[in-house]
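Appendix B. One record, verbatim.
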Amino acid sequence: TTYRGHAWAIKALSLDGILHVSIIEGSFTTSRFADFIEGLLDNMNPFPGPNSVVVMDNCRIHKSDLILEMIQERYV
């Protein structure tokens, strides 16, 4: 069986280049987005250091309590 769907890429950029990338088949769920954020946060620094600010649009999965808690725990 083969999957005939879309592959999606999500990336985080900084002034210095790409911080983190994730490519998946299917949809980005809150759980998959949380995995992406966890990988991204490993490449970030506490505020006010370089790469210390996360900017997201108002997509529903960006507003999850889980995502907010993950970011706040790292002081980003």
